[in-house]
Amino acid sequence: xxxxxxxxxxxxxxxxxxxxxxxxxxxxxxxxxxxxxxxxxxxxxxxxxxxxxxxxxxxxxxxxxxxxxxxxxxxxxxxxxxxxxxxxxxxxxxxxxxxxxxxxxxxxxxxxxxxxxxxxxxxxxxxxxxxxxxxxxxxxxxxxxxxxxxxxxxxxxxxxxxxxx
Length: 165
Fold this sequence. Notes:
The chain is mainly alpha-helical.
């Protein structure tokens, strides 16, 4: 089964953002397709793909408003770092192409590439936890919020590896 199909199935199995509970599975699949396709284009290994999926879900719960670029419609405290972040990975201004690329798919890819660069640096400094912790823009190697992301990464990676022939 190709990466895209595996990843879309995994993303659809994750809990839906509470404000999107009324979306049908087909509507969610339509929304998540560009994210799954981007992750498969940018992530060169199952580990990178699983990391991108875990980061995207952890940051945004794949909320429809975020995926449609309508962060201002999110509740207070969930508005893409109050306008300082963009996309499913919630990257900031240093990821310029994630903000300025001409198409939605190119912005998704740019955000994924930037998040992965930061993740790789975090891994060299303090392992898997650092891949998530360094996304804050600081050198963070530990925190209560990192453990759930690491567990989600491992869950997604396991499901991806189980689904591949």
